[in-house]
């Protein structure tokens, strides 16, 4: 399965995918990495593993559509079959989503539908979790559709919030779960064990 990974930051999720592919844990490979940030460390990780990588900047295009077309062109040129948003901080329009209908997944650092949607990204999620005082948070891998952070959920895993947790310590705990969950979701998709039934996702175990 050829993966196209979109990144904006550190790339620890990208690294988890690269490692799992190289260890042959999943029958997939990262065909291309695209970042919207020139200095995203994720790009260094791609370079280190000889993965084609591009910086595509919204400001270099006259419209969101042209910006998305540029990314779609690169993904298609690399024969990407599954697009993975791994810490990607740009909203994608229905044009992009239509080009890869039900073939885009995202990792979000909370138990959707809690603490998600516009404004809830990166550390802001964990700050809101601590602020609210919930006892359980977690990570979610979901399909990307037109609604932000609201596509059909593939996998979720809880992370218990300790009363001494800070957003930083919580982020660390959630991050470890994200890495595991994202790799597991890609593995299931590479084995065609994921079926979308309306809003719900059925995982076909065994087989
Ligand atoms: C993380 O907060 C992750 O939860 C979210 O994007 C952020 C950056 O992840 N999806 P990464 O280290 O760049 O993969």
Oligomer: single chain
Ions, cofactors and other bound molecules: 5-O-phosphono-beta-D-ribofuranosylamine
Our measurement of the CA-to-CA distance between the termini, rounded to an integer number of angstroms, reads 18 Å
Number of strands: 9
Q: Walk across the major sheet and give the strand order.
A: 3-2-1-4-5-6-7
Question: Overall 3D geometry?
Answer: globular
Mean pLDDT: 96
Low-pLDDT ranges: none
Helix content: 25-40%
From N to C, what is the helix and strand string? EHEHEHEHEHEEHEE
Radius of gyration: 16 Å
Strand content: 15-25%
Helix count, DSSP H or I runs of 4 or more residues = 6
Largest sheet: 7 strands, mixed
- The secondary-structure class comes to alpha/beta
Pathway: Purine metabolism; IMP biosynthesis via de novo pathway; N(2)-formyl-N(1)-(5-phospho-D-ribosyl)glycinamide from N(1)-(5-phospho-D-ribosyl)glycinamide (10-formyl THF route): step 1/1
Function: Catalyzes the transfer of a formyl group from 10-formyltetrahydrofolate to 5-phospho-ribosyl-glycinamide (GAR), producing 5-phospho-ribosyl-N-formylglycinamide (FGAR) and tetrahydrofolate.
Domain Formyl transferase N-terminal: 5-186
Binding site for N(1)-(5-phospho-beta-D-ribosyl)glycinamide: 11-13
Strand and helix map with partners:
Layout: E1 2-7, H1 12-22, E2 29-35, H2 41-48, E3 53-55, H3 64-77, E4 82-85, H4 94-99, E5 104-108, H5 123-132, E6 136-143, E7 153-160, H6 167-190, E8 194-197, E9 200-203
Parallel strand pairs: 1-2, 1-4, 2-3, 4-5
Antiparallel strand pairs: 5-6, 6-7, 8-9
Helix pairs in contact: 1-6, 5-6
Binding site for N(1)-(5-phospho-beta-D-ribosyl)glycinamide: 11-13
GO molecular function: phosphoribosylglycinamide formyltransferase activity
Family: Belongs to the GART family.
């Amino acid at each position: 399965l050829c993966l196209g990974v979109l990144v904006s930051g550190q790339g620890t999720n990208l690294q988890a995918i690269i490692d799992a592919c190289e260890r042959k844990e999943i029958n997939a490979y990262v065909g291309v990495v695209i970042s919207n940030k020139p200095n995203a460390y994720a790009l260094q990780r791609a370079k280190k593993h000889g993965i084609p990588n591009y910086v595509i900047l919204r400001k270099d295009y006259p419209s969101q559509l042209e910006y998305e077309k540029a990314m779609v062109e690169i993904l298609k040129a690399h024969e990407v079959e599954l697009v993975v948003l791994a810490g990607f901080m740009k909203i994608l329009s229905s044009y992009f989503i239509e080009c890869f209908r039900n073939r885009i997944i995202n990792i979000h650092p909370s138990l959707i539908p809690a603490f998600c949607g516009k404004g809830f990204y990166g550390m802001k999620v964990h700050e809101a979790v601590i602020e609210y005082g919930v006892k359980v948070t977690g990570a979610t891998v979901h399909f990307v559709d037109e609604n932000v952070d609201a596509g059909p959920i593939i996998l979720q895993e809880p992370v218990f919030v300790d009363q001494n947790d800070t957003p930083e310590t919580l982020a660390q705990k959630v991050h470890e779960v994200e890495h595991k969950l994202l790799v597991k979701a890609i593995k299931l998709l590479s084995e065609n064990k994921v079926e979308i039934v309306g809003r719900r996702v059925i995982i076909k175990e065994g087989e």
